[in-house]
Amino acid sequence: MIHIQKAKFPWAVVHMDLITALTPSGDRSYNACLVIADRYRKTPILLPCHKDETVMDTALLLWNSVLSHTELFENIISDRDSKFKSALWTNLHRFFRTNS
């Protein structure tokens, strides 16, 4: 069993999951939903997206919808593979102009 760290403040630790196989909707025919949940407040944010979005698309979605009004997360918990998470962190640090 993996120990999941406790969040010390809002948006420090987030859970990220992609819900797919949704009926296309909206003017952009979204067929998926990116769920970002703040572990501290248990607050979810649901972001419409496409199931085949790239790492850069996901990073931009996070930047524009969540990180524009929070600080950079300390940890992202996700079932995505380590290669995806590493590329996501690289892009997020690039947006914040910090070293990863």
Q: How far apart lie the N and C ends?
A: 28 Å
Work out the strand percent. Answer: 25-35%
Could you state the CATH homologous superfamily?
Answer: Ribonuclease H-like superfamily/Ribonuclease H
* CATH topology assignment: Nucleotidyltransferase, domain 5
What radius of gyration results from the CA coordinates? 14 Å
With helices defined by DSSP (H or I, 4 residues minimum), what is the helix count?
Answer: 2
Q: How many discrete domains?
A: 1
User: Given the C-alpha coordinates, what overall shape results?
Assistant: globular
Average pLDDT rating:
90
Describe this structure in words.
Strands 3-2-1-4 form a four-stranded mixed sheet, with helices on one face. The mean pLDDT is 90. It has a single domain (13-96), classed as 2-Layer Sandwich (Nucleotidyltransferase, domain 5), CATH 3.30.420. It is of the alpha+beta class and 100 residues long. The chain contains two helices and four strands, in the order βββαβα. A hairpin with a 4-residue loop joins β2 (32-38) and β3 (43-49).
